[in-house]
Design brief:
There is one protein chain. The chain has one domain: 2,3-Dihydroxybiphenyl 1,2-Dioxygenase, domain 1 (Roll). The two termini are 18 Å apart. By secondary structure, it is of the alpha+beta class.
Length: 128
Amino acid sequence: MITSLHTMIYSDDPAATRAFFRDVLEWPYVEDSNSEPGWLIFKSGPSELGVHPTHCSWEGKEFNYPKHHSIILMCEDIDVTVSELRAKGAEFVGEVEDHGYGWVIQMVLPSAGEIQLYQPNHALAYTL
């Protein structure tokens, strides 16, 4: 049976992106002995998987999205988390915004674009 969920981030500078997860987010990791030195695989904690529609109507608005996949980091208190991560050198785009399903901000990953950080206001599946 399925035992876990493995996510991947593609980066122009994998060492810098890995250093961010290791040093700023302080995620535990193993080093893959079957790959080049420094190839870190991180423990990312509890997870959830949501399946979203590519086309929908919500609150009188139409939404259309291309087929894609997204990695989103969740937290319990977004203001505290953003403050703590900024103190460690993390950069963010814009300010925390209410998106209806939770509070959201975009965090910059070194050499890998942006990733959403959010404090959900929905029931949490990872606690099941």
